[in-house]
């Protein structure tokens, strides 16, 4: 990265003297080439991470990321920024832990501060069944070599003094687990940092370019039709989350995916009051406080299929009631903004990564409510998959054919709630 | 010091006879009834009210409404404390206490203002570029950053107020009680429509309250009062004031919050706010417009406010917002403000207008007053930091894109800005309404929508009073007509007078005069024109990216006063038109809404319904400890004095094995199945066969999802030729019922089967143990309990304790057992009868924990405990229960390659050397430290009194062929390893002799 | 919050209903005759269109009856509500 482009306190000071007129573009807005070695459809976190690792790990830089709007504004910019790897099944643990490890070095890797805040992520148990599930998960996570602990109520009180720990509350807190390496990060920064890094290595990021069709001949992908003309490539990776089914239809196959709204909201900014991430599957809420001071919270998905990025307010009533129940002092805190993403959910709440019935066409989708925390890990294995033409070992269990064989990786039991 | 020295002596909507005392930042002041905190502060000459988010620059009151970006305060203390209220919206009450937010130690001297000194180092997105070294240090940086960010503080104590909710339908919902909204409500009401008219202010009138305009011969305020009187007389019109419609959802569903006692200080225990959930046939949005400021260097000093706000303070609150005023504008409306200020005795120094030749009627009136109008001039700076002291003006150059020489300075303590108006399109836009850019008016106006909505008045880009009245009336009539009501005829239309206004010339921004000057666009988040230019220069070119990179428009004010400028500056910088750049998405809520209002009464005891059995009170009195299973409270165990859980459970288990025990099993799901095709139907639902079940007999059944995984289980009995009775697990009852209905209605509608959920209709008591028959025989009438006439897995009807009962001879404990079901209301009576006759047998109430120990000793599975949605019947060793002679739900999935692979996890027992917790993981190869390959986990684990040792059930890879193998259970949390031998899951009475006695 | 016109009860709030996903998925008459892939297609593969979708709803907190709805997944506009067994939009009744 050249000197004008590299970020540091020194470059900031140098640029301050020039009234910040000399900063280079974070990424270019190039004209599309006629062909690329790899085309990635979707300029969200997953697509951009794939491009970044294709260039960085595999030296493949003749790559285009094609995005119909601006980058990072789908689910990457619409989630509650929670990062964790405390998954039950080995297959999930492997890919999410890879992701968390990559996140831990991502600011330096990208030279872009993604503000990863490993403030610890607490999962609450409210009944004997919850406790059993939490124990099961903690034991499994630890034996997978990932950090996870049980928390005593006294320790919980110390970490989250504002939590309602009354034994007579409707759903009393009986116990909790914590992943101390879990936390939050600045979601937009991840998309931007990845885009900047990929661009710096030669990847073309084509914003405001919509893929309108896939050109397939004799079962082979030839390239994509776009609003800026046909662009050829022998390999196309599709990472379009909620719109995956639409692209599968273009390619003539179906996916076991349903697109649903997933709602989230933030409060007005408050001075620091809460310094972990809190999740409860029984009362269906997860929440944290951003560095700006906003309480960020999310809930389960709306039940119906939708591409509208809008949900029904009853979901908000439920999670805010649950929040007031868990943390009664938040009753007078005010909701400032709410929104929804479109999540692509699989029957087993696990992603699909890998080959499709079309040779050269690869999909990475179905991350459901877990997509944000997976961004670097997903990009890493998808880049490998695109580069080698064969799935990365961590991606193998997440192949589409698991729905035929029945080898599902059912994380429903592991989470019970959107996360 | 003279009290309220900026207060006018007469006029306005305040009651000078009612003095209210309040404090701000610890100092006491007085105001009047009808004031807002902002107007009262201005009346007292308080100019510095807050600090900005990032640079902590001194700020004053900028507006008179919800768009306020500066004057955010913390109200009250303790449980009643509320953060980030806009002083412009807080109605004054006696005893009000407020303080500035986001400053320390005080608003006057704020340490964090150091940020302003280093602002050159803190451009938009600076934090993305630094704090990355050393790697581990972000955590430390973050602490400091977090402390500096945020605004007010969360309360320290739980809320002491009550919140309520109401659902309401109406034919026409009118949002906004200004001239357009009132006219709409009047017309719709006259047509006979059921109307709800809602306004966020304490009284109707909207803009009329502040602009002093007249309608025909009356003042606007009098007109609004008369309209209110007429509306109040219409029985189908409901007016809600102090109510904000904040969310517009699909199919005309609108959420509103009504503030009931905030203006009285919301005393503890009172109903504070009510959430209204409105489903409207038609919606009329008359939400008005919000004035835009102007962008120039240091345009954020206390004493700078929107022109219309100044006008409102004069007309509505009787407050002079300053002594010497300058106005800066690009349109005519500032001239009306200048007029009203002058009338109120404010010395108006000049009106500075960027237009070359302003000509409207208002302009002429100001010129005639002898007030200087500096046309084709622009502001380039201000003087004063904590208080405005003057301004700097330059003439524009010929092209209008820069300045001529000749800096003028004018002294003033009030600067009023008007950069034109933005229709308040937020609600229109929320459910997907499209906006069009109106070049002439330089604003976005409503376009296409899928909702049944009409936008009227200023919200529709009609800024003249006459236009609002006419547009509102037309909207009201149209809305009523769309609900199917007849047009009342004779439109009471007011004559529309052509606008006397001159056109607006939007000059969104001008080049800086000196480098590094701060031209604020978003006052709240401290976003400057340079920040926006920087963002576009760095490649953040879509407006959504600019917004996120610079944080423009992301504060609590949602950038109401700045967004249009941000958009225009970005468009200018990129050389694109404003509509090409487009707007960002409008998201609910329109103004922030307390969590408590959204939660309503669904907190505390009402957080979720509690389901209790008929015998719950007895359990409580007997000291039972409860466990929550879905919404049910189930007795977990009944400790006697001095007993811990282990001792109690052990005693309960021994009673069941050696004497007799009683369990309240009422929470089990129960479904009545009627109809000639019932057996056929059960054959499809369960894995096993049901065609041959005789009347009076029971059978255990396993239910799979279509994916072949075990979903639920239970005993189903045949009560008659076409009558069956199914039981399900407690947690699965609702799901199973829904699942069964689904198949019946959607796939097998040809089957004559009828399902009824009767879980709550029957109380079920389970009597178990060697003495079970003796206890039951003391109470049963008309039923032969002898083993030969009433065998295991049979059902009889008769009377128990004189109550009609169904008696099932079934057992989940492995002992002789009977389940007695009676009408729910008799449940307690039956339980008490058993207590009476049971005394001589030491009949022992047992909880769910003892039941689990007993069933685990028998190797009986508990669905959801030993299974998790990834377990087939084969995994459980229950292939014998899977019929090969018929199709059933899930069958085909059992033949998939993954369902038949040999290394599946299978259900086994574990002989343990020490107790392990449930959820412990099992390995075959122990390593010194993780990672270790797990081959399964412990699903159930108990101390068995009957066996005198710890037992466990587990799912283990190839478990069925591993009998006798030793495995390890590493308990890394406790730092120990437990060895276990894989054995059959049936630990107790494997031949089942004890059942058949 | 959708307003759903239950064919048995009339228009009611979404909160009274539960969702059943894509409509007109018929259970294979002879599952044994299907390949694993064909069975998987029935079991898991679903249309997930960006546009009109025929879907099932159940009036769970009302009449408990299942019925079909044709709804646009972008605008959420409900174009048609019809009973179980009735043909989908555009098809002729038999």
What global shape of chain B is seen?
elongated
Low-confidence stretches of chain C: none
Task: List the chains of the largest interface with their residue counts.
Answer: A-B, 111 and 117 residues
CATH class of the domain at 162-289 and 423-482 in chain B: Alpha Beta
Strand count of chain B: 51
Strand order of the largest sheet of chain C: 3-4-5-6
Please give the CATH architecture of chain C. Answer: 2-Layer Sandwich
Per the CATH scheme, the topology name of the domain at 162-289 and 423-482 in chain B is FAD/NAD(P)-binding domain
Question: Mean pLDDT of chain C, as a whole number?
Answer: 93
Task: Indicate the structural class of chain C.
Answer: mainly beta
The largest β sheet of chain C comes out as: 4 strands, antiparallel
Strand content range of chain B: 25-35%
- Kindly identify the CATH topology of chain C: Folate-binding fold
- Note the run of SSEs of chain C as H and E: EEEHEEE
CATH class of chain C: Alpha Beta
CATH superfamily of the domain at 162-289 and 423-482 in chain B: FAD/NAD(P)-binding domain
Query: Counting H and I runs of at least 4 residues, what is the number of helices of chain B?
Result: 24
Strand content of chain C: 35-45%
Structure description:
- The complex is a heterotrimer of chains A (419), B (997) and C (94).
- Chain A is α/β, with parallel strands linked by helices and 419 residues long.
- Helices cover 30% and strands 23% of the residues of chain A.
- Chain A has 12 helices and 19 strands.
- Chain A has helices spanning 9-17, 45-58, 90-104, 106-110, 128-143, 153-159, 187-200, 244-251, 314-326, 371-388, 402-405, 412-415; strands at 38-41, 63-66, 82-83, 121-125, 149-151, 175-179, 183-184, 204-206, 211-217, 220-226, 229-232, 235-238, 258-267, 277-280, 285-289, 295-301, 334-345, 352-355, 361-365.
- In chain A, the strands form 4 sheets. In chain A, strands 5-6-4-14-15-16-13-17 form an 8-stranded mixed beta sheet. A 6-stranded mixed beta sheet of chain A has the order 8-2-1-12-19-18.
- Mean pLDDT of chain A is 94; it is low at 414-419.
- Among the domains of chain B are: 15-126, Ubiquitin-like (UB roll) (Roll), CATH 3.10.20.440; 162-289 and 423-482, FAD/NAD(P)-binding domain (3-Layer(bba) Sandwich), CATH 3.50.50; 293-419, FAD/NAD(P)-binding domain; 669-758, 2-Layer Sandwich (Alpha-Beta Plaits), CATH 3.30.70.1400; 858-983, Gyrase A, domain 2 (2-Layer Sandwich), CATH 3.30.1360.
- Helices cover 21% and strands 28% of the residues of chain B.
- In chain B, the strands form 13 sheets. In chain B, strands 8, 9, 12, 13, 14, 15 and 28 form a 7-stranded mixed beta sheet that branches. In chain B, strands 41-42-43-44-40-34-45 form a 7-stranded mixed beta sheet.
- In chain B, strand 50 (966-971) and strand 51 (976-983) form a beta hairpin.
- Chain B is elongated, with a radius of gyration of 38 Å.
- The mean pLDDT of chain B is 95.
- Chain C is mainly β and 94 residues long.
- Chain C has a single domain (3-26, 46-90), classed as Folate-binding fold (2-Layer Sandwich), CATH 3.30.2270.
- Chain C is built from 1 helix and 6 strands.
- Chain C has one helix at 36-43, and strands at 3-6, 10-13, 18-22, 52-58, 66-72, 78-83.
- In chain C, the strands form 2 sheets. Chain C has a 4-stranded antiparallel beta sheet with strand order 3-4-5-6, with no helix packed on it. Chain C has a two-stranded antiparallel sheet with strand order 1-2.
- Chain C is globular.
